[in-house]
Amino acid sequence: MKRDSLYNFWATLKFGRPYVSRLLLASGLNLATVAADLAFLYLLKRLIDTGITAQNLALMKWIALEALGILLIRSVLGYVSGYLFTYIEGRMANDIQDALYARIQHLSMDFHTENSTGNLITLIFYYAHDMLQIITSLSGTLVKELFRIPALIIFLFSLHPGLAVFALLVFPPALFTIRLFRNLITRTTRRSYDILSQLYTKAELTLSHMETVKTFAKEQEEIEHFQHLNKEMLSRSLQEYKASALAGPVIQLLKMLGVTLLVFLGTREVAQGELSIGGLTTFIASAYYFYGSLSTITSWYLSLIAGLVSAEAVLEVLKTEPTVLPPSNGLILPMFEKKIVLRDVVFRYPTGAKDVLNKINLGITKGETIAIVGHSGSGKSTIIKILLRLYDPGKGTVSIDGHNLANLNLPALRRLYGVAPQDPGIFQDSVAAAIAYGRLSASLEKIQAAARIAGAHEFIINLPQGYDTLIGERGVKLSGGEKQRLALARALLRTPQILILDEALSSVDAPTEKAILQRITTRFRGRTTILISHRLASVAHADRILAMEGGVIIEEGDHHKLMAESTKYREWYLVQQSEKLDIQI
Fold first, then answer.
1. Strand (E) or helix (H) holding 429
2. Which domains does the chain have, with CATH numbers?
3. pTM for the structure as a whole
4. pLDDT at residue 416, rounded to an integer
């Protein structure tokens, strides 16, 4: 085993620590079944040599009863150990999946932008389950067989040392077979998981965007693409099966050759009086058990190789650290009291080729309403992500009330904000639960009050069950504007210190947007508000407007000042007004 594989092997075994006592008990019961097998083989020899050969009917009955008792005890032991291993496997599967899901939840946004949903689902539900083979097969199979094989070898030598030497001749070719198929199984298993991840990603993307697929009449193309990936998955699965299954027939061939050789040599020993018929029968049966154990060990090792491939992927995620690191004893800031300051902030996305923000200097005073406008890609939403500490700036600092964001308790920091994004991200639940997502303890009255401000109450009460109406996955039963208003109500319900509307009403008509913003201004007067919008008329009331281009703040001031003195903002505003359309600049 290579060094990395050994590390993954021992790291995986740590998940078995909470269940050591149960694993030991189950392993002990497995060893007891081995002892029962050896006792049965011994009774077989007695039955033939002292019972059948001597025609002692009474002894034969007693031996038969003893054998029946041994088989009964073995069955009970096998059932109990099997149940224990199933229980342990289920608990460990939960532990690994819980740890993996928790780690994924805590990893920073750059991890999620670089990994597809399909890949993460494959990790949680397939890789995590397959890596369990390392632990359960170790205790359930390896321990048992490592006890059985030496015990059988000793038993074989006790019956006939010469034949026992011949019985062991299958070891070298068996080891060669294992080594031959090891690398092949590793490669095919990795390829199978890669295709499975692509398959899940394709299904997730197309099923969650069915309206787009149908709008562009792409059903047949998506079907063909999915079928292509599915066929590729089948091909990889067959290759993986062949790689692991081919080892079985090779071991079986060695097994049959070994038994045939032993029968040939054994009958000669019986003819020469060196071995009794009972001794030969017991020896052949014991050798058959021995070869069976050898076959089981081979299968275990090849399964271990596949499990290590899964463990490598799972452990890679578990040891990944968030790039946005929460401080161990971060300061809990209960209130926003003075000012947010961005000083010389430079930022580039991890996979980006250029800076998205370039030396941004910005101060936001408590109670101020500021608006950020500019072309798509100018860096408006990125500033919000920096404020929420979804990303840390590459250079420069961001502080709130004089405290660097990096030193603040992360959940407490984000609780200061109420964010209504352009993509609302509504979960499948009731309308009331969707609004209360950020404040689960909110009463229905408060939920309804937030919905009224957001302009959502009117359409909600017309739904079949009102606030109890179940909305579909991603809120597909609602229009784009309705989903955005639910997301806005969700943000308002938090009664945040800082309200952020990032294109929050882009799917709502201009008059409705204006009415909603007026209600927010009245209800949240004196509360810090950050607006991002392409509709310049809707943000004209802001205390300060920042015009951005190419990651730089190029103009700043209130609406009247910018209309009188600026170039870009005035140009953008006049274009929209002259055409009487909500043109997205």
1. strand 429-430
2. 3-318 (1.20.1560.10), 331-416+497-585 (3.40.50.300), 425-495 (3.40.50.300)
3. 0.77
4. 93
